[in-house]
Amino acid sequence: MEKQSGYTWKLGMFVTIGLVLFVMAIYFIGKQKNLFGSTFHITSQFKTVSGLEVGNNVRFSGINVGTVEQIQLKNDSTVIVVLVMKEEVRKFIKTDATASIGSDGLMGDKVLTISPGAKSQKMIEDNGTIASVDGIEMHDIMKSVKKSVDNIGVISDEIAIFSHSMNNGNGALARLVKDDKMANSVSNTLENLESGTKGFSDNMEAAKSNFLLRGYYKKKEKQKEKKLEEQKEKQEEAKEKAAKEKEQKEKELKEQKEKEEKQKQEEAKKAEAAKK
Amino acid sequence: MILSLKNIFTEIGETALFAKKFFKEVFIPPYETKEFLKQCYIIGYKSLPLVAITGFIMGLVLTLQSRPTLVKFGAESWLPGMVALSLIREIAPVITALICAGKISSGIGAELGSMKVTEQIDAMEVSAVNPYNYLVVTRVLACTLMVPILVFFADAIGIIGGYVGINIHGDVNFYRFLTQIIQSLEFLDLFPATIKTFFFGFVIGMIGCYKGFTASNGTESVGQAANSAVVTASLSIFIIDMVAVQITDLFF
Predict the structure, then answer these.
(1) Could you tell me if A10 lies within 8 Å of chain B, comparing CB atoms?
(2) Residue B35: CB partners within 8 Å, gap ≥ 6?
(3) CB contact under 8 A, B45 and A7
(4) Where does residue A46 rank: exposed (0-12), middle (13-18), buried (19+ CB within 10 A)?
(5) Is A63 in the B-facing interface, judged by CB distances under 8 Å?
(6) Nearest-Cα residue of chain A relative to residue B153
(7) Does residue A249 lie in a domain region?
(8) What is the chain A residue with the closest CA to B191?
(9) pLDDT, averaged across chain A
(10) Where are the alpha helices (DSSP H) in A89-210?
(11) By Cβ atoms counted within 10 A, which residue in A32, A133, B147, B173 is the most buried?
């Protein structure tokens, strides 16, 4: 009997450890698939799931919080996706959250991402439904890329024609760019113009002091002064108006803030009540 | 040519009849519990060091060998998952079964063969002990149940070997390593591989026993029985593996 007990406990230990390893493997894989622990379900409808499969991860704020449990065709343009998620994240998912399908890296699996909504404060119910946002499909991207590439083709053709005519043509621009003589004559023309305008301004000064035209210029100055005064008055009036409007706005802002504070207080009360 | 073909079929047919007898005898008392436990101890516990060392080395080597390819694709983070997946699905069951075929099948073949040659089996029959029940059923049953457990050990130790292999080149936290493995595993990886190992165990025990039981008289045939037990068992393991993998592939 002693001999027997000598190996029996070793055998027992061997078998026990082996089975514990197996059970641990089952438990951890099951935990990964959310088989154990409390969970809840969410459904969402998509036009296309773009290769999402049962068992893919569900992410909320970048954290894996569940898996895709079921994918079903409802009709020819609607797919129902059922998600199973950990109970502890339920309080963070509101009724206006949205689901979208993306992929994990370039080559990775598809991932269903839940994005929080903005307004709703109501926690989602078990078996609740959330809206979906259709992801960007690869062929959509390709379409827009193709459009811009086509445009670029047209533009580059035109640029080619333009530069060709610039280099080889005989038009004004081409000659301006290429021809030395043309450039010289243009700069000569400009010099002439400068001296011409100087002479002209001298002429004008002379005309102002001429007694025949003096009356006309005086009248003009008087009109200018009048206009300036009128403008000043208008500006002052505008300032007064602006000040009044500001006061009104401030009043409205104050009222809004008060309202928001009241709302917050009410929400806090509600939350406390819910906790209780 | 035709004669040898006929011999092969005769052999297969006799093995099948031998196996059929096992299923009949398993449920018929007397149950040889004490002998069964002893065989479990010999087959399971005594094979553990061998299986542990091979498992560890397989995990380590697999990691080191597949690392350069994955690094080329920039997918080094998939290494733990890949190693664990190939270990659990294929390598640990087959390597463990082969090791067991070498250790257990040959041992049983030699043991029963020498008993047969020295006419101990006949003596048992005379003394009203059912030799099939006492010798074959206990050994085959012990093999069938112990090999899967040995495979669990090989899985676990192989994963530890993989961890060591990864830490030779990089630095990965053990917890992170385990989460990466569990993330890549599914039940579909674990269960078919486990079911497969029961068949491996059964074949290892059954072929060892058959070869020993049918050893012809003479000392020479003991060695032959042991030898052919190992060869046949190893070959059968690969054939069963192929069938099992195809069936799993078909259904899932």
Answers:
(1) yes
(2) B134, B138
(3) yes
(4) buried
(5) no
(6) A18
(7) no
(8) A26
(9) 82
(10) 138-168, 172-178, 180-209
(11) B147
